[in-house]
Amino acid sequence: MNNTWNNILLVFNVLLWSITFLIYQWKRKQFGVGSCILFLYTSISVMSIFLYYNPYARGLFKDLSLIPYIYLYLMMMLSFKPLFMVENSKIIKIKKPTNSLFNIICYIIISLSIVGFVGLFPELKENLFMLFIDSDYGRYMYQYTTDKFMSKTSSGMDVLSIISNIFIGISPLFLIYYMTFKKKNKFILYGLFFSTLIGPLYAVSTGGRTAVVLCILKIVFLFLFLRKFIDFELRRKISITLIIILLVLFIPFALLSMSRSAGDIDRLIYTIERYGSESFINFNNYGLDANGCRYGDRTVVLFKEILGLDSAKYFANRLSKYSYMNMNESVFYTYVGEFTLDYGPIFSVVIFIISSLFFFYSLNIKNNCMMFYQYIIYYILLYGCLGYFHFPWSNIDGNLQLVTLLFLSLIFKVDSLKIKKYKS
Question: Are 381 and 83 in contact (CB under 8 A)?
Fold first, then answer.
């Protein structure tokens, strides 16, 4: 009976997402950000069927329930709504900010990325080289990095490294937008290109893959959003450039995946299935009842630290502090699960409603023209919705990136008001 019910729920989840995708696509008549994000989660729901019955996953998951799937779907649709609204706004252009301000921010991003790269280069060079010549090296680096990460409880990186990592993380936002410019400064273009590649390349060289997947998703979705503002010939050139970026990121990613699977094809398939879809099943099992909550120690840990509140800001601290919970951050559970584990399912609904209202208000497009600061806010929402692993803006580094982007959006909003006042 349980197996029958599990089958029904897995198929129900697939149908729920598939029908939503088909209806949205039928209404839109073209494949944009909304269709693509619905297709992403539809694919995850399909893959979760294979994972649930994979022999390697035997005993990993519990029986499924109906309510968690419905809750997850409704919360995701609530967060997608502002994205759909923007897509239906018939935007014809994104208002460019002041050239001097935009260029200054780009120079800051590039300069700090170079500083970060100088510190990372020796380790990056050695690890990538070994990854290409030693089939077991990726597995070794993953274990080494995990052990190092687990032992890290109190000391953090130096301030300069933290700042450089923040700007490395937001570089794709500026790179893809800058590609829409007809007149480009080559230093800025290549500098942003370089900055975009540093983070995921370093991640894969140390045995990590999540950062690579998220970077690829960022690039693809930002291009999907901006492609209508680009003429055909330029779009073709940008497409070729993006394919090069994706190939540069994919090759070491594939080598790492094979290394961590020790050459076992069945285990490699299982690993891909887990990376691609375990978040749906984990949320179903424990997302609404994990035997406690973390009181914001993942989603707002930076603000708790600033306010002097008790917090567990490192992975190892949280594992110890919340060892009584049935699920921790060592597995994937979607960005919705990040909030339900931090605040519980009821208060999370309140947070999502308030957040959606904020994005509806902030992304209200006037005269078919999106302001650049709105583009930044749009990216904040989009990237959050791509978090089928965890909430991308979580943890100290995620919180810092989020604060930085909100600050930049404020700066560019003031800039847009000055431009408007000057023209009037």
Answer: yes
CB 279 within 8 A of CB 337: yes
Orientation angle between helical segments 137-151 and 232-260, nearest 10 degrees = 90
350: Cβ contacts below 8 Å, ≥ 6 apart? none
- Residue 270 binned pLDDT confidence (cut-offs 50, 70, 90): confident
Looking at the fold, whether 80 and 105 belong to one and the same domain comes out as no
CB burial class (10 A; 0-12, 13-18, 19+) of residue 159?
exposed
* Residue 353's pLDDT band (cuts 50, 70, 90): very high
pTM assigned to the model: 0.90
> What is the rounded distance in angstroms from the CA atom of residue 255 to the CA atom of residue 260?
9
d(CA 418, CA 424): 10
Answer whether 45's CB lies under 8 Å from 17's CB. yes
* Cα 150 to Cα 316: distance, rounded to the nearest angstrom: 5
Backbone φ and ψ for 382, nearest 5 degrees, come out as -60, -50
Longest CA pairwise span in the chain (Å): 71
- The neighbour count for residue 399, using CB atoms within 10 Å, is 21
Q: Is 48 in contact with 13 (CB distance < 8 Å)?
A: yes
Range of the domain at 27: 1-90+279-424
Work out whether strand 369-371 and strand 93-95 pair parallel, antiparallel, or are unpaired.
parallel
Last residue of a domain, one of 263, 293, 319: 263
Question: Are 139 and 229 in the same domain?
Answer: yes
